[in-house]
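Exercise 7 asks you to align residues with tokens for two separate proteins.
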Amino acid sequence: MANSAVASSVPFIWEGTDRKGQKVKGKSMAATEAAVRADLRRQGVVPSRIKKQSKGLFSGGGKITPADIAIFSRQLATMLAAGIPLVQSFEIVGTGHENAAMQKLILAIKGDVEGGSALAEALAKHPLYFDDLFINLVEAGEQAGALETLLEKIATYKEKTEALKKKIKKALTYPAAVLVVAFVVTTILLIFVIPAFEDLFQGFGADLPTFTRMVIDLSVFVREKGWYLAILIGAGFGTFFYFKKRSRAMRHWIDRMSLKIPVIGSILQKAAIARYARTLSTMFAAGVPLVEALESVSGATGNIVYEVGVLKMRDEVSTGQRLQQAMENTDLFPNMVIQMIAVGEESGSLDDMSSKVADFYEEDVDNAVDNLSSLLEPLIMSILGVLVGGLVVAMYLPIFKMGSVI
């Protein structure tokens, strides 16, 4: 019932006076204006003006991103640390959010909590936005009576994880975008520019250089068969992404191959280790048992190869084997990581040592991405120069040849 009520809620802007006679204003989500008035009366506010908020150009449904969840975690942790009750915290965070979809999500959770559900149960109803790791940590915080502390850890974890993802995207997006631009520019030249030179060369009455002939033939092929080629490439990409989404075996193969790509593979490996260490540190610091923690850690690595490896480690640890030995058996972790985890196990500070490993590898990924960008810039410029410059040279070779004859 709470969910259906919230789902039909709309934003209302109101103004009024509080118990001290001071003017106040704000925004509330409710199904009707009467519901807003009743809610304000419970808060001791006498409304003087209530109106439904009109949806402007930028106030659409919106999309909930992992960054939104990270910000929500930080805001909720701050509210609880300041002593604000949980339900009121949801009200403040929800009504103040600019994303309408996030507003509905937060207020839906608030409705469940008001109805008597535990926060972990309310979050579990939205698996698209709150994974098992998030829910397990919240549940541990509720049971230990330290929800604000655990939410603080979740917020820190989410922020660091999102920052790491952005670094990886930065490393992969820039060269991909430039290569796409190069492909588009080359296609435009082959379809629109080369034919103009071809018409010009027909009146020369002499054989064209081999390089020029090859470019002209390529231009003819693209103009005559280009649509078939485009359909074939599009179908190939569509098939690839279709099976990638539905076939775990294919994703496993892609993740395994991606780790072997020069330079980029090393960055992806370090990122997976950083996520593994950061998640393990967060879970263990929250008091989650190691075997149970490894279950959540496996899904947070971001790479199926490491996910399978961590699940194998979980099985070995559940039989009494030390984490250090289980990590060695996977052959996925550098010796430094294994030794630091071993020290953490021996000293009883596994969460601190895992956090240090995560800090080290996150910084290493950051430096590697910066170095990769520096290396790729001249390489990409060279590729653009060869593609575009090669076409230009091919078209001017006959003109140079004619000039030498004259």
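Second protein for Exercise 7:
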Amino acid sequence: MSRVLLEATGLTLSYARRGITGSGERTLAVRGVDLSVARGDSVGIVGESGSGKSSLGRLLVGLERPGTGTVRFDGIPISRLGTPELRPLRRRFQMVFQDAGGSLDPLLPVETIVAEPLLAHGIATGREASDRVASLLAAVGLPGEAARLRPGALSGGERQRVALARALAPEPELLVLDEPVSALDASIRGQVLELLMELRERFGLTLVVISHDLTTVRRLTHGVSVMHAGAFLEAGPTEAVLADPSHPCTRTLLAAEPRLGSEATLPPETPSGPAAAWPPGACSFAPRCPLATDRCREAPSLLEVAPGHRVACHEVGREARA
């Protein structure tokens, strides 16, 4: 059995631009991303809104087909499979979407929602399915009577738990969590994070956690990749990257992190010039970067600056080699 459960190489994904002026043009949402996730590991993907995180998550579970590159799950190239070949594999990897409430059918009771994967994959029917649903709801901290309720009768935190129960129903090996607590009140976030850590240990899950919230990533992950404009600019052990960030993009994210007694603020724009002043192949962060030089007109590659810690920055790479 391979230690690597999920592997992505050279992934790209583009979308057609909307609107009158965007006719025929495409936006590159994911740019040459490589990712490797070991069994039982927990990996974070962080970045600002619009950085391509959710698009990457959809690629990883086969909901989008990459323009180039390959996604392999347990060695199987799922990005190259058609729907009939992919269907039996889907029970092994599940995604919990950012809008948990929006991903639940408002007309169905919770029991039917959670049982759906059991029926779809032929795992259980009838009384056995009902018993499994009850067990899953208990596992995510919901009372048995929640099974009869519809999503509209539940709180945001409860709907998030229902989405987790549904994802766990087919007993997956991998969960991709897209902003798992962003829509929740601060008082509920801690409870859901504790639940996720407990479920990871209990079910032996491998996690990919997509978030702009660094607290979530600190608590849930062992490794993290920082994404900007569709590409990874820094990657390494979570504690090392977030405690001592190397890339200016990561430093910007940390500077914007809310702190007790203060509001989150983005650092002021730097004098490196507007985005239009940089050629298409330039580093995507150059227009906002205080370290930007003429070398940044060519996008850097991810290079190792410490064991397991990689950074895509000409200036940081030069400092590491010095």
